[in-house]
Write a structure and sequence with these properties.
Helix content: 10-25%
Bound molecules: S-adenosyl-L-homocysteine
Number of domains: 1
Strand order of the largest sheet: 8-7-6-9-10-11-12
Radius of gyration: 18 Å
Distance between the termini: 44 Å
Strand content: 25-35%
CATH topology: Rossmann fold
Number of strands: 12
CATH architecture: 3-Layer(aba) Sandwich
Shape: globular
CATH superfamily: Vaccinia Virus protein VP39
Low-confidence stretches: 1-19, 21-25
Order of helices and strands: EEEHHEEHEHEHEEHEEE
Number of helices: 6
Length: about 250
């Protein structure tokens, strides 16, 4: 780690962590950002949202403040969703924690994310698996998220613009699939893009008041079985597209 500081002992010290440096850009964070993030993670552990050490490590590393607008910096490490443009929001950290825990990601996994948004959940996943495919409806968000992935040096992430409600057939099958937007019903065709034993997480239900649904695929001799379980309420923006709600944009 490189520490950059002025001669004034009262000036805030800026830590430039190696994790966030590459040749083209340097992602800056203050020690206050780091402390606030650790505080948020400790609270998520105390509240029972974070348990798996790999998920905890990912949460400690990914700088949520880098994904939110300057106007919302002071709330970057609060357990709240925040606007990210295009009428969309970055999810509450506790919701990202719940979903990531349920997904049970392993280092050798290929993961599909539907709803890149600002890319925060994408970055959490990128630190835990082999490759993340992420698809986003709004091209403005695609561009911003791609920029963040470059700055944070996640070369194993591919972000495309499109209708993720249909999955990503050309890159299927996936070990894990996560929807970060609320679907009216389980997007069934996408469940078939899982490997045998694969897990899919999707918020399902009426607008802004869904239930977190986990689906595990298991292939029998001449049959495909989907085990469906329910994991509490949540509040997501709309999944639009063919297997989602009607889009107005
Ligand atoms: N995980 C994101 C959450 C973003 S909100 C984050 O951390 O920021 C959900 C996102 O899903 C929005 O950006 C929205 O544009 C996107 N979305 C909705 N329907 C979609 C679809 N059919 N295909 C791809 N993205 C979609």
């Amino acid at each position: 780690m490189q520490v950059v500081g002025g001669s004034n002992p009262l000036a805030p010290t800026i830590f430039l962590s190696e994790t966030f440096m590459n040749h083209d850009s340097i992602f800056k964070e203050t020690i206050r950002d780091r402390l606030n993030r650790d505080k948020m993670v400790d609270q998520l552990i105390r509240d029972g949202f974070l348990k798996n050490p790999a998920v905890i490590q990912a949460f400690r590393r990914v700088p949520r403040h880098g994904f939110v607008d300057a106007a919302f910096q002071s709330r970057a490490y609060s357990d709240t969703h925040l606007p990210i443009g295009c009428d969309q929001t970055i999810s509450k950290p506790s919701t990202v924690a719940r979903m990531t825990e349920l997904l049970m990601v392993c280092p050798d996994h290929r993961v599909l994310e539907i709803g890149t948004g600002c890319g925060y959940q994408t970055a959490i996943l990128a630190g835990m698996c082999r490759k993340v495919y992420s698809v986003e409806w709004h091209s403005q968000l695609v561009n911003a998220a791609r920029k963040m992935m470059t700055q944070l040096e996640y070369p194993t992430v591919r972000i495309d613009q499109g209708d993720g409600s249909q999955g990503w057939p050309s890159a299927a099958p996936f070990d894990r699939i996560i929807f970060t937007a609320g679907a009216p019903t389980i997007p069934e065709p996408v469940c078939y893009q899982l490997v045998d034993g694969g897990i899919l997480i999707v918020p399902v239900g009426p607008r802004r008041q869904q239930e977190l649904v986990r689906i595990i695929r298991s292939d029998a001799e001449n049959d495909v079985i989907f085990d469906v379980s329910y994991h509490g309420s949540c509040e997501f923006v709309d999944l639009v597209g063919k297997n989602g709600w009607m889009s107005t944009t």
